[in-house]
Amino acid sequence: MGKTSGKKLTIAKGKQKPIRLSLSDKRSVRTQFGALPFRIHDGKVEILLITSRGTGRWIIPKGWPMDGETPAGAAATEAYEEAGVEGKLFHQVLGFYAYDKGHAGEKLPCVVAVFPLKVKKQLKSYPEKHERRRKWVSLKKAGQMVSEPELRQIIKDFDPKALR
């Protein structure tokens, strides 16, 4: 094993393969894929956060694996549906964070793999526009607004110059 800085996590070497799921697997695989939508505004990195539908807390767009889609592709789809943004997708995992998802009165422990998405287009109309708010904030402010400690650390460590 070589030295690892912890900064360049990847799921696997090479090109991501689409996931194949049966419908019964979809919810038992408690892994989700999230997008960290970012832009450079006046020379500073900004992160787009959205509110959750249930509690209204600040989160990043994320969702379940999608049949026939790569993990990063699923994250990009969630960014479009939940935050109304499109852009350059990176297949590089920034990190992982855990949270409990409320589902049918139960708490499902979930792990989210986070992929960066450089926002090129912000849409006025998108599927969950009337269910969520979205807000561009500085890296520091984004770290203060999210409640999951590992996500806070991913945001704090985020450096778009390290992306390939």
Automatic annotation (TrEMBL):
- Please give the Pfam families that the UniProt record associates with this protein: NUDIX (PF00293)
Coiled coil spans: none
GO MF entry, a single one? pyrophosphatase activity
Tell me where in this chain the Nudix hydrolase domain is found: 28-159
- Name the domain of life: Bacteria
Write down the InterPro entries for this protein, in alphabetical order. DDP-like_NUDIX (IPR047198), NUDIX_hydrolase-like_dom_sf (IPR015797), NUDIX_hydrolase_dom (IPR000086)
What is this protein's name?
NUDIX hydrolase
Native species: Aliiroseovarius halocynthiae
What are the annotated GO cellular component locations?
cytoplasm
What cofactor does this one take?
Answer: Mg(2+)
Q: Which PROSITE patterns match?
A: NUDIX
The yes or no answer to whether the keyword Hydrolase is present is: yes
